[in-house]
Amino acid sequence: MPQIKTTVLVDAPIDVVMRVARDYAAYPSFMKDVKSVDVLEDDGSRIVAKWIARVEEVKMEIKWTQEDVWDFANRTSRFRQTSGDYDRMEGDWYFAEENGGTRFDSVVDAEFTIPLVGALLKNLIARKVQENLQAMQDAIKAQAEKVARN
Q1: pLDDT at position 97 over 90
Q2: Alpha-carbon gap, residue 145 to 34, rounded angstroms
Q3: How far is CA 149 from the centre of its chain?
Q4: Is 46 exposed, middle or buried (0-12, 13-18, 19+ CB in 10 A)?
Q5: Which domain holds residue 105?
Q6: C-alpha dist (Å) from residue 87 to 18, 58, 66, 67, 135
Q7: What are the pLDDT digits (tens) for 44-91?
Q8: What is the CATH number of the domain that holds 114?
Q9: Is 125 exposed, middle or buried (0-12, 13-18, 19+ CB in 10 A)?
Q10: pLDDT digits (tens, 9 = 90+) for 116-140
Q11: How many domains does the chain have?
């Protein structure tokens, strides 16, 4: 699967966007494809969490444990799967002030193989990974803008 890049502009201050993006335990409340996120460790800059996401089209769940390292000074987060269903999943989030709001860029490398499955289903999974990354950013945008208004 190729590298996936997505971007969203958020009408909220950068500190609000980063706070919402970092609150993984809240994701299931505003992201329909995220079934659960259990935070196992959180020392402020490093988070380890167990994720379960749904792929409704094929009625399957994808499970993984992910380590994230947040660099607040440089406004980034680097993440990688430490175990789980992906063959490989890692990437970076970048946050920058732009036009009175926040630019939120995501760059993800993900590999997901389903044994004995044809190219059609593999293409569906690749498309769903991209759609879910964009949906995640859009959901963080909506939540951050809601928080910023209140």
Answers
A1: yes
A2: 20
A3: 23
A4: exposed
A5: 4-149
A6: 28, 19, 13, 15, 22
A7: 999 999 999 887 777 778 899 999 999 999 999 999 999 998 888 999
A8: 3.30.530.20
A9: buried
A10: 555 666 677 677 778 878 888 999 9
A11: 1
